[in-house]
Design brief:
Blueprint (H helix, E strand, L loop, with lengths): L1 E3 L4 E4 L7 E6 L5 E6 L4 E6 L4 E7 L4 E6 L5 E6 L5 E5 L4 E2 L2
Antiparallel strand pairs: 1-2, 3-4, 4-5, 5-6, 7-8, 8-9, 9-10
Amino acid sequence: TVVDLTARKAVAEIPVGDHPEGVSWVGDGPLALVTVYGDDKVLLLDADLGKVVHTLAVPDEPYGVVATRDGKRAYVTHDYPGSVTEIDVPSRRVLR
């Protein structure tokens, strides 16, 4: 859900899949990363456009996600087996 904080109302609902879990802004936005636990993927969505702009397959059960301040890397935690995935955000690919 994209929310207009000034108006305090939802302005868009973006369908992302089965059991979205974590979200993190990339830099100052408008890109955000969303982990989708049930589908084993990480989505890049553009909040201004209100749509998913890229999908990355990741290992099982992605849970939390954080992006570096410069927006170049993101780190995704996985519920099981307790691992972390590193993502190169500009190239939109999993590094390790």
